[in-house]
Amino acid sequence: MLSRLSRSAAKKAASKTISPATFSAGARRNIVQPSGAERASVMDLPSTYKDESHFTPRSDMLGFKLEVPRREENLKEKTRPIYLDMQATTPVDPRVLDAMLPYLTDQYGNPHSRTHAYGWEAEQGVEDARKHVADLIGADPKDIVFTSGATETNNMAIKGVARFHKEKKKHIITTQTEHKCVLDSCRKLGEEGFDITYLPVQNNGVVDLNVLEAAIRPDTSLVSIMTVNNETGVIQPIKEIGALLRKHRGIYFHTDAAQAAGKIPVDVNEMNVDLMSISGHKLYGPKGIGAAYVRRRPRVRLEPIINGGGQERGLRSGTLPTALVVGLGEAARIARKEMARDRSHVEALSKRLIEGINSQVEYVVRNGDVEGYPGCVNLSFSYVEGESLLMALKDIALSSGSACTSASLEPSYVLRALGAAEDMAHSSLRFGLGRFTTEAEVDFVVQHIVGTVHRLREMSPLWEMVQEGIDINSIDWSQSQH
Amino acid sequence: MSAVPSRRAVLGLYSSTLRTAKSFSSYNFRNYFVRRTRDVFRNIQTEQDPSRVQSMYQEAVKDLAVLRRSAIVNQLYGGWRLAVEDPAKPVLQRGDD
């Protein structure tokens, strides 16, 4: 080893005398190969470029202007839309922010520093947070790994387990209604040579256990099924699925509980879950933090995506963001404490919303299982396009589906997987209710939705035909016969 | 620890918690904490077991300290009016007109 070192040092010294032009031609490959200037790409700015302050409205902003309000201006002048998109993200609870602030000011230590008080107090905060997150899902604190969010956790769990067992097992099962990050991770693994089974769901969005059992193969390494769907609020029978998978040896069970943790009771041991994803900003915590539950007994082995200093059991290296971790912990603690109160509040609001809309508008279809999470109400308004409804409702922040796909006008793939017709998938709206939603807000939404739906239907020729009793589906829209 | 809190102490804590909850600038937080405060203190009122009452009281004291700080931060950074708070303003209005 020593002789090799000295030889390479000598070579390095010799190469210094050679000019850079001749160096690249005959030199042997070193560990770090310098790249020439011809390989660096420097682009000229296009002539249309304007400085950063210039903002062009994009087509997907539905005609809204971006007006960033300035705090110095009078707060009373502009009103903000009311927020009913709790599946996209939730506001940070003021109590969570209060727990985070000390770690954003004086207690700035690195939680991995073992040699001084700054490190110890940060570590104490992180470990308390770990305990709170573990308590929320009935796990052991040592099983919790902090990540940057549910997307990273899903990637880590799916790719990590699949790649670790790729020598023997090459089959993964998931469902068609999963979140994009699960589907995309599976697609990537598909490119790497894995077999992926995308299970269909029933019309109410729930996976059929018989279909799942039939899909299991001897070389299945992982099953990934989300607990609560982000678009429809459908709750999958995770407990039954866990019991089913426990009968088959060597299959790991991952569930994406980003929308479930803190909202419905979740227990990893009762559900026989091996891996679970949790996101901070879906349970009134900060964005940019999430947690993975990785079972230690029996041990789940996975290949980490991020390598480095070996923090978080070597599964997710990198310094923990203490303030965010503490925020997630406090959010989990509050969620556990307030779950019953939140649940009854959200249930009452959900009932009020659905009954309010149903009593005044006809041809409204609720997508997904009626027994799903009440805080996520996905309604389709027939003969009204969802996007035009959103455009008309400037004072209500709603979404027609997942935030990840809200820019595209494609109908939601989740609703299509539920068997919704294309027109119904196009006319859907998702109402996300949460801890901070008030009854007055729900009444406001009902009043304006009803008014807007009636107004848009008055304009619609389809609606006129329906009123005259013409079956829309019987019409041949093509012009070819003429 | 101290004995079971007197009725007067509980009422005093209730009124100062409620006053703090009402001082939030943000509509949603204000409404939530007012609702929660009423709920929590109603539970204390109906609780029969003295040791439970004492622990609930202690917890409410701690919550009040957190709530006071949170309200100050919220007064600094929150406070835009929501559409629902302003019924006089016409709704159905596009941003580009």
From TrEMBL, chain A:
Query: Would the keyword DNA damage turn up in this protein's UniProt record?
Result: no
Supply the PROSITE patterns for this chain.
AA_TRANSFER_CLASS_5 (PS00595)
All copies of the Aminotransferase class V domain together span: 82-443
Q: Which reaction does it catalyse?
A: (sulfur carrier)-H + L-cysteine = (sulfur carrier)-SH + L-alanine
Asked if the Swiss-Prot or TrEMBL record annotates the protein with the keyword Transferase, the reply is yes
Q: InterPro entries given for it?
A: Aminotrans_V_dom (IPR000192), Aminotrans_V_PyrdxlP_BS (IPR020578), Cys_deSase_IscS (IPR010240), PyrdxlP-dep_Trfase (IPR015424), PyrdxlP-dep_Trfase_major (IPR015421), PyrdxlP-dep_Trfase_small (IPR015422)
MF terms from GO for this chain are:
cysteine desulfurase activity
Q: Which cofactor does it need?
A: pyridoxal 5'-phosphate
**One family name in Pfam for this protein:** Aminotran_5
- Alphabetical keyword list: Iron, Iron-sulfur, Metal-binding, Pyridoxal phosphate, Transferase
* UniProt-listed Enzyme Commission number(s): 2.8.1.7
Q: What does this protein do?
A: Catalyzes the removal of elemental sulfur from cysteine to produce alanine. It supplies the inorganic sulfur for iron-sulfur (Fe-S) clusters. Plays a role in both tRNA-processing and mitochondrial metabolism. Involved in the 2-thio-modification of both 5-carboxymethylaminomethyl-2-thiouridine in mitochondrial tRNAs and 5-methoxycarbonylmethyl-2-thiouridine (mcm5s2U) in cytoplasmic tRNAs.
Q: Which family does it belong to?
A: Belongs to the class-V pyridoxal-phosphate-dependent aminotransferase family. NifS/IscS subfamily.
Query: In its UniProt entry, what is this protein called?
Result: cysteine desulfurase
Q: Which organism is it from?
A: Marasmiellus scandens
Lineage of producing organism: Eukaryota, Fungi, Dikarya, Basidiomycota, Agaricomycotina
TrEMBL record, chain B:
What Pfam families does the record point to?
Answer: Complex1_LYR (PF05347)
CDD domains assigned: Complex1_LYR_LYRM4
Q: Which residues form the Complex 1 LYR protein domain?
A: 8-65
Instruction: State the InterPro entries in the record.
Output: Complex1_LYR_dom, Complex1_LYR_LYRM4, ISC_assembly_LYR
Instruction: Determine the domain of life of the protein's source.
Output: Eukaryota
- Where does the signal sequence lie? none
Return the similarity comment: Belongs to the complex I LYR family.
Q: State what protein this is by name.
A: Complex 1 LYR protein domain-containing protein
* Biological classification of the source: Eukaryota, Fungi, Dikarya, Basidiomycota, Agaricomycotina
